[in-house]
Design a protein that fits this description.
This protein is of the alpha+beta class. The chain is built from eleven helices and six strands. The chain has a four-stranded antiparallel beta sheet.
Length: about 260
């Protein structure tokens, strides 16, 4: 199979394949919504940053695996982003294996978020500082994983992208304790923040969980009838609209052409 050169790449996956073939070390700036930065080292993807999915810092802090004070203290040592991970491990705040697992989860989630939309463009530039978690993934593995995730959710990218923009709220059934008693703690946490204003991305950042994992759980709650789109009419609710069309308005009586009698003095 021939590889496209970065200059002639028709899309981001083809671009990354070309960089992999050339064993390039660089950063790819992706513009659009959500956009982001793809970090490449020796042709391998070692990290991604995008506002479309939580990164390593959010996953660690929101899950309370690391406290805000510990994170701030590690940064205060003056370690650059590339060595911050080593500082966290050296201080015993994280294990090296745990850091790598978190980094890989964040990388695959960011790749999934970027795959849901078509970018406006991209630019290959010099390498940028990155929190080094020890992850290095070939580009074709990211493509395979993105395809698997999209099929699991909706079997097509457009439908999955629409789902990622949905704002869900509790359905009437969620008020019945019998319906929610057997939910897992993570599903209960989702129910607590799905208020009709947050998208799956917002929920992922709020809870410090991966976007894909959140969307899977939201799909389950939709199937159970515990969530619904905002202002949706609950199933089985009788309509309050009139059943018959209103009667046409009665025409005003025409004035009589016969003059009224005059009063005699």
């Amino acid at each position: 199979m021939t590889r496209e050169t970065p200059a002639a790449a028709r899309n981001v996956p083809a671009l990354l394949a070309g960089l992999h073939a050339e064993r390039r070390s660089c950063a790819v700036l992706v513009s659009g919504a959500p956009g982001g930065v793809i970090h490449v080292r020796d042709g391998m993807v070692v990290g991604m940053e995008t506002p479309g999915a939580p990164g390593v810092e959010v996953l660690l802090l929101k899950s309370h695996r690391i406290t805000e004070d510990d994170w701030t203290a590690a940064r205060a040592t003056g370690a650059d982003p590339a060595r911050l991970a080593l500082e966290l491990v050296a201080e015993g705040l994280l294990g090296a294996a745990e850091l790598e697992i978190t980094g890989q989860a964040a990388l695959f989630d960011a790749a999934f978020a970027l795959a849901l939309t078509t970018p406006d463009g991209w630019e290959v530039t010099y390498p940028r500082p990155l929190l080094d978690t020890g992850v290095a993934v070939p580009p074709d593995r990211l493509v395979t994983e993105n395809t698997r995730r999209i099929r699991l959710l909706a079997n097509e990218r457009g439908a999955t992208a629409r789902f990622a923009r949905d704002r869900l709220e509790p359905a009437p059934a969620a008020r019945d304790p019998r319906q929610t008693a057997r939910l897992s703690p993570r599903h209960r946490n989702l129910m607590a923040v799905a208020d009709g204003r947050r998208t799956p991305r917002d929920i992922a950042f709020t809870l410090g969980r991966g976007l894909f994992a959140v969307m899977l759980d939201l799909r389950d709650l939709l199937a159970l009838g515990l969530l619904q789109p905002p202002s949706a009419t609950p199933a089985g609710r009788p309509s309050t609209a009139p059943r018959t069309p209103p009667a046409p308005p009665t025409a005003a009586p025409r004035p009589s052409s016969t003059p009224l009698p005059r009063r005699k003095r």
